[in-house]
Write a structure and sequence with these properties.
The complex is a heterotetramer, with two copies of chain A and two copies of chain B. Chain A is of the alpha/beta class. Chain A is 37% helix and 17% strand. Chain A starts with a helix and ends with a helix. In chain B, helix 1 packs across helix 2, helix 2 runs parallel beside helix 8 and helix 5 packs parallel to helix 6. The longest helix of chain B has 30 residues. The chains are: A alpha/beta, B alpha/beta. The complex binds thiamine diphosphate (2 copies) and magnesium ion (2 copies).
C-alpha cells in the first residue's frame, strides 16, 4: 500500500505528499532514521504526513510519544548522540515551545561544547502558519525564534519540490535542522518532483527574474509574491522573487545579487514584523548593500499581534498579494 | 471576584442527594443539547472548529458541584463544557465564541470553541496548550495560601496531560507546600489517537499521586455521586490546609477527538463500548428509578434545551463579527474594556446550577 | 537590620543594591507583591538580590521554589490572574528557557486572548550576560528572544538608578515585564539614586550628547560606549549615546531624534549579532530614517557563537570599548 | 563506541567482593585527591569555578561499577567525578578542562570544570542545566531498544533535579515503553540552599517511582556494596527488557555547593553531620577490617595520588590556552576534529577501574 504512495500522480504531488515521500525514502535508505511525535504512528499524523510509516517500519522506528515535548526533543537528541537520525514531529509549531530549552541549550550547543566530538543529527519538523482560522495555538510562525541561536539550521520550504528535497537534505545533515511546513501550502499546490532529489540547505532559489524590485521572502510569502507579480506585470512592473528557503544560515550572496540588480528591496513574511527574520535581512542590506540602495528597505509582514480565530481580525494581520503589490508600487515609484 | 451561590453542603438526606442529582442532570442535559448543536454548526460551516464533552459531562458537572461558587476557583481545559455551564456560563456565550463573534465576552471571537475565560465566575482562561493551565491553578492556590484566604483551586485535564512536565512541576510544588488545589484527571483512555498504554505505564492515573505522597482516588466518571463525593472530600482536605489530592475520573470519549479528527483509529467495538458508558442515560435511569424525574419530564427538558440552544445559535449567528481593525486592542493594559458577560443582556449572573 | 539596607551609602548604591531596594520598597508598599525563585529566601539569592526579604516578609511572600522553571513562571501567572503581583527570579537568564512556553504562550497572550478581562502583572527577573568566564550556561544574553512576541515588555537597565526606577515601574506595570540585569554591572558602578523614583518603561535615555555618530545601545553596551567616547573625544569625535533601557516596546522616536541629528547610526550590544535587537533597530532606520542616512547602519555585537569558559575565545566574541571606537572611526570617515 | 572492559559479574565469593571494594576505594581516593587539588586551584585563581563530589564519591563509583563498560552508556551530571574516573577518564583531562586549556579533549576549555563528554567512554556530554541530560539518557535507551542492542543507559542526578519537568517526561516515557535505563538520584538533601522538604513532599525520592509503577529503592549512598547491588539489579532488569528503575542513594554534601557558594545557610551541626558521613573513611575502615588494605597502604596510595594529581595540575597549567580566533569552530559539522583523549598522550584508553 505504501508503494503506491510513493509513486507520484501525473500532475505532481502536494507538499504533504512530498513530506511523506521524503520520510519514507530516507527511512528505506538509512535504518538509523526514526520518526517520533504525538499521533505519528497509529494515526499517521494529524495532517497524514506520516501515513503508512508504522505499517512499513514498525512501532519502534515510528514512535507514538506521550504529550511531552521536552522529552520528544530530548530523547531525539540522546538518540542522535547514540547513532540514530531522529525526525521529531511537533504536532503544531505552536507546541514546540516546551522543547525550547532542549533545542537552544542542548541541540544547538552540543557539537560546539564538545569541540566537534558529539554531533546531534536531528530534524525537528512542525506544521506552522496562519490564515486558516486556527486561532493563537494553531497559526503561529515561530521560525525567527530559532535564528538568534548559533548551531541550528532553520528551513522553510514554499513548494512540494523544495519540501521533499530539503527534508531529505535535513535528515542527512549532521546538525540540528528545524523544518517548518506552512499548513496552507500542504495541499494547495501540486508540482512534479524528481525522485531522490536532495536540495542544498543554506541556498536561496530565484523564483522569478525581474528588474524593478527584489521581493525577498519564503514560505507562503513566495505565493503572495507570485500572485502580486502577475498583477504588477500588467502594469509593466517586473519584480524579482527570491525564495530564501533557509533562514539560518541566510544566503547573503543571493540577497546581494538580487538587490545589486534592482536596488530596491522588499522583504515579505507572514511572521510578526518586529524581530521577524526580515529585520536581520534589512539590517544586512542597510549595512553591506548600503551603496546599492535607491530606496528604503521595506517590509510587508504580519502585524505585531497574535493570530485570532475570527477571520476579520486575522485578515487584517497577515499579509496578502494585494499588500505586497501595493508596497512594490510605492517602492518602485520612490 | 464576586461572591455568588450558596455552599453545597454534604447531602445528608436522600432528598438532598436527589436534588443534587437532578441539578447535575439538568446541566449535563444542557451540555448535550449544545454538543449536538455544535456538531451541526460545524457541518453547516458556521463554526470551523468543534470539540465537545460527550461522555465527560457527568464527571465535569458533579465535580464542579463540590465547589463553593464565587469562593473557589476553576481551571478547566478545552473539553470542560460541563464545568463551564455548572459555573453559570450560558450556551449563548459559548456559541458567540464558537462563531467568532465580537460580543463573545470570553475571547471576543479570538479563541476556538470552548476557550472560555471569566473572572466573574473565577474561571481561569482556557488555552489549547495541554497542561499549561495546571501551574496557573497552583498559582491561584498559592495566592490563597499567601493571603490566607479560604479559596480552593480545582483544575481539570485529560490523561494525555499527565505526561507533560508542567503537570509534574505543578503537582510537586503544590504537594511540597500543601497548597489548596485539587487535580481532576478526566481519563478517557485516549490522547487523540494515542491509547493510555502508550501514554504512560500507569494503568490507573490515580497511582501517580503516590509519587507526590498525596491522596489519589480513581472513580467511575459516569457515577455522579462517586465523583461528587470524591471531589468534596478533596476540596475539604485542601481547605483544611492538608494540601492537594488527585482524582482520576474514568470516562468514555464517545465521539472523535474533535471536528478535525476522523476517529478512524478506533474500531466498532471500541466505539460501541464508549457509547454504552454514556453517562447521561445512566443518570436519567437513576433519577427515574429514584422517582425524581419521569421519562416524559426528561424528554420535555431535552426538547426545551434543544429549542433554547437553537435560538441561542441563531441569535449568536446574527451578531456582528469583530472589526478587523481592533486586532491589536488589549495586547497591553489601557484599552477600553470589552463587554463582560453580565452586560450583553444575560441578566443577573446565574449562580450556576446549584441554587435555582 | 533590613532598615539599614535601604539607606544608601554616601557614594551611592550598586545595581544589585538597587534591585534589592526596589524589591523591598515595593513589597512594603503593596502586600500583593511576592518574590519566588530558587534560593531567593533562605540564601537571599545567589547574587544577594533578595537578601533580607525572608526576614521582613516571611516565607509565603518570599518563596524558595523547587528547581522547576515552568511552574515558577506558570504559578506566577496564575497568582497574577488571582490578584498578586509576583516577581519571579530565574537564577541565571540561561535557565529561563524551560519557562519559554509559559512566557510566550500564556503570559504574552492572556490579556489579548481575554479581550482585556484577564491581565498578568508579573516581573520575570534574571541576571544575564557574559565576560565573567561563566561558560555557555552562566553568560547568555537572551533578551532578543522575547522581542518577537507581542504582549511582553523587555527591560535592560545599564545603571543602578535605572535598575531601581525601572524595576519599581515593572512591578507596578499591569503587564508581563522581562527584566535582565547584567552580572558584570551588578557591583561595578555606584550611583546616587533618589528614593522612590519610578522611571518610565518604553522610554530611552540620552546618556551623552554628541554630533558625529549615534551609538544606540543598552546594558553593558552603554559602559563600552562611554569608555569609547572618552577616547574619541580626544580625537575630536563627539559621539551621542542613546541608552534604550527598554527593548520592547522600542523607543522609535528617540532613535529617530538621534539619527536625525548625526545621520550615522552604530548599534552596540553584547548579544549575538544575527537576530539580536540591533537587527530590528537597523531595519527601522533603513526604512523610516532612510533619508537621514549618510552612511551604512553598522552593528558592533557579540559574534554569532556561544560564550566559552576560557577567556581568549570569550574576549574574541564579546564587544569591548576598543571595537566600539574603531567602528565609530570608520563610520565617521565614511 | 568502542568495545571495552570485561563485564563485572556478581561477586559470588567474598574475595571478589573484597576486590571490588578495593577498586572502588581506589577511584574514590583518586576523586578525593583531585577534589582537594581543585579547591586549591580555585583559591590560587587557576580555576575560576570549582565544584566537587565530596560525600557522593562512593555512590558514584559503586554504581558505575555495575555497568558493562564500552557497552552501556553513562549520562552523569556536573557532580559525578566518581563516575568519570570509574569510566577511565583521567584527572589530567579533567584538570585541562578546569583550567580552560585548548587540549582539554572534552570541551576544549569551553565548559566549566567537570562538564565532560567522551564518546570513547560512552559518556554523554554534561551541561550545567539541571535534568536536561535525563531525556538524553532515555534517548540512548530508545536507540538501544530500536536497534535491539544489549546496552543499558545509566543516568545520575541530584534531589533538586527530580522537580524538573524534563525528569518526569523522561521517566514516564521510559516506563511506558520499558526502555533500558536506570535513574540514579544522589540525594544530598540540598539544592544549593534549598532543603529537601522545600523541594518536594517526598521524604524518600525512591517513592517517586510508584508514580511510574517502576521499582524504586533507597540505599545508603555511603555503603558501596548496597549501592553496587542495587545498581546491578536495576541494570539487569533493564537489560532483560523489564524497563527502568529508580535508585535513591542518600549521600552527604560535605562542602559548599560550589566555589561560588558560602554554605552560610547550614549551621555547624549540619556540617558536622555531613562530615561524619564521609564515605571514604568508612570504606577504608571496611577494607582494613576485611584485611584487604592496611592503614599504611591507604595513606601511601593517597600520597601517591596527591603527587600524581599535583603533577597533572602543573602539567595542565603549563599547556596552552585556546586561540581566541577558533571561537566559532565546531558550531557545525565539517571542521577538523579536535584531539580525542587518546591522542594527547594518555596512552591506551584505560578500561576504567575494573580491570587493572
Ligand atoms: C503542548 C501540546 N502538545 C500537543 C497538543 C495537540 N493536542 C491537542 S489535544 C491533544 C490530546 C489531549 O489528550 P488528553 O490530555 O487525554 O485530553 P482529551 O482530549 O483526551 O480529553 C493533543 C496532543 C497540544 N494542544 N498541546
Ligand atoms: C534549569 C536550571 N535551573 C537552575 C540551575 C542553577 N543550579 C545549579 S546547581 C543547582 C542545585 C542542584 O541541586 P541538586 O539537583 O540537588 O544537585 P546537587 O548539586 O545538590 O548535587 C541549581 C538550582 C541550573 N543549573 N539549571
Ligand atoms: Mg484523553
Ligand atoms: Mg542535591
Amino acid at each position: 500500500m505504501t508503494e503506491a504512495l510513493v509513486a507520484a500522480p501525473p500532475e505532481g504531488i502536494t507538499m504533504i505528499e512530498a513530506v511523506q515521500q521524503a520520510l519514507i525514502e530516507e527511512m528505506r535508505r538509512d535504518p538509523s532514521v526514526v520518526v517520533m511525535g504525538e499521533d505519528v504512528a497509529i494515526k499517521g499524523g494529524v495532517f497524514r504526513a506520516t501515513k503508512g510509516l508504522l505499517e512499513e517500519f514498525g512501532d519502534r522506528r515510528v514512535l507514538d510519544t506521550p504529550i511531552a515535548e521536552a522529552v520528544i526533543a530530548g530523547a531525539a537528541i540522546g538518540a542522535a548522540m547514540s547513532g540514530l537520525r531522529p525526525v521529531a514531529e511537533f504536532q503544531f509549531a505552536d507546541y514546540i515551545h516546551p522543547a525550547y530549552e532542549q533545542i537552544v541549550n542542548q541541540a544547538a550547543t552540543m557539537r560546539w561544547r564538545t569541540v566537534g566530538n558529539v554531533g546531534v543529527p536531528i530534524v525537528l519538523r512542525a506544521p506552522f502558519g496562519g490564515g486558516i482560522s486556527g486561532g493563537i495555538y494553531h497559526s503561529q510562525s515561530v521560525e525567527a525564534l530559532y535564528c538568534h541561536v548559533p548551531g541550528l539550521k532553520v528551513v522553510v520550504p514554499a513548494t512540494p519540490r523544495d519540501a521533499k528535497g530539503l527534508l531529505k537534505a535535513a535528515i542527512r545533515d549532521d546538525d540540528p535542522v528545524l523544518f517548518f511546513e506552512h499548513k496552507k501550502s500542504y495541499r494547495r499546490y501540486r508540482e512534479l518532483v524528481p525522485d531522490d532529489e536532495v536540495l542544498p540547505i543554506g541556498k536561496a532559489r530565484l523564483d522569478r527574474e525581474g528588474d524593478t524590485v527584489s521581493v525577498i521572502t519564503y514560505g507562503v510569502g513566495v505565493h503572495h509574491a507570485r500572485e502580486a507579480a502577475a498583477a504588477l506585470a500588467e502594469e509593466g512592473i517586473e519584480i524579482e522573487i527570491l525564495d530564501l528557503r533557509t533562514l539560518a544560515p541566510l544566503d547573503h550572496d543571493a540577497i546581494a545579487r538580487t538587490v545589486g540588480r534592482t536596488h530596491r528591496a522588499l522583504i515579505v513574511h507572514e511572521a510578526n514584523r518586529t524581530m521577524g527574520i526580515g529585520a536581520e535581512i534589512a539590517a544586512f542590506i542597510a549595512d553591506d548593500l548600503f551603496m546599492d540602495l535607491d530606496a528604503p528597505v521595506r517590509r510587508v509582514c504580519g502585524q505585531d499581534s497574535h493570530l485570532p480565530y475570527n477571520a476579520p481580525e486575522e485578515q487584517e494581520i497577515i499579509p496578502d498579494p494585494g499588500r505586497v503589490a501595493e508596497a512594490v508600487r510605492r517602492l518602485a515609484s520612490y | 471576584m464576586t461572591e455568588g451561590s450558596a455552599t453545597v453542603t454534604m447531602p445528608e438526606t436522600r432528598s438532598e442527594e436527589d436534588r443534587l442529582l437532578r441539578r447535575i442532570w439538568r446541566v449535563v442535559a444542557l451540555c448535550r443539547a449544545v454538543d449536538e448543536r455544535l456538531w451541526k454548526l460545524s457541518r453547516q460551516g458556521r463554526s470551523s472548529f468543534v470539540l465537545t464533552a460527550r461522555g465527560h459531562e457527568v464527571a465535569q458537572v458533579a465535580s464542579t458541584a463540590a465547589m463553593r461558587l464565587g469562593v473557589d476557583s476553576a481551571w478547566p481545559y478545552y473539553r470542560d463544557m460541563g464545568v463551564a455551564f455548572a459555573l453559570g456560563i450560558t450556551p449563548y456565550e459559548l456559541l458567540l465564541g464558537s462563531m467568532g463573534r465580537a460580543e463573545d465576552p470570553h475571547t471576543g471571537g479570538r479563541q476556538l470553541t470552548m476557550h472560555l475565560a471569566s473572572p466573574e465566575r473565577k474561571l481561569g482562561s482556557i488555552s489549547s496548550v495541554i497542561a499549561d493551565h495546571i501551574p496557573h491553578a497552583v498559582g491561584a492556590a498559592y495566592a490563597a495560601w499567601v493571603r490566607r484566604e479560604d479559596s480552593v483551586a480545582l483544575c481539570w485535564f485529560g490523561d494525555g496531560a499527565t505526561s507533560a512536565g508542567a503537570t509534574h512541576e505543578a503537582m510537586n510544588l503544590a504537594a511540597a507546600r500543601r497548597l489548596p488545589v485539587v487535580f481532576i484527571c478526566e481519563n478517557n483512555g485516549l490522547a487523540i489517537s494515542v491509547p493510555l498504554h502508550l501514554q504512560t505505564s500507569l494503568t490507573s492515573i490515580a497511582d501517580r499521586a503516590k509519587g507526590y505522597t498525596i491522596p489519589g482516588v480513581r472513580v467511575d466518571g459516569t457515577d455522579a455521586i462517586a465523583v461528587n463525593d470524591a471531589t468534596r472530600e478533596a476540596v475539604e482536605r485542601a481547605r483544611s490546609g492538608a494540601g492537594p489530592s488527585l482524582i482520576e475520573a474514568v470516562v468514555p470519549r464517545i465521539l472523535a477527538h474533535s471536528s478535525q479528527d476522523d476517529d478512524a483509529y478506533r474500531d466498532q467495538a471500541e466505539l460501541a463500548a464508549a457509547q454504552a458508558r454514556d453517562p447521561l442515560p445512566r443518570l436519567e435511569r437513576e433519577l427515574i428509578g429514584r422517582g425524581v424525574l419521569t421519562a416524559q419530564e426528561a424528554r420535555a427538558e431535552h426538547e426545551r434545551f434543544d429549542r433554547m440552544v437553537l435560538a441561542d445559535a441563531d441569535r449568536a449567528w446574527s451578531r456582528p463579527k469583530p472589526e478587523g481593525s481592533r486586532f491589536n486592542r488589549w495586547l497591553f493594559a489601557g484599552d477600553e474594556p470589552h463587554q463582560a458577560a453580565s452586560d450583553i443582556g444575560l441578566g443577573p449572573l446565574p449562580g450556576g446550577v446549584f441554587d435555582d
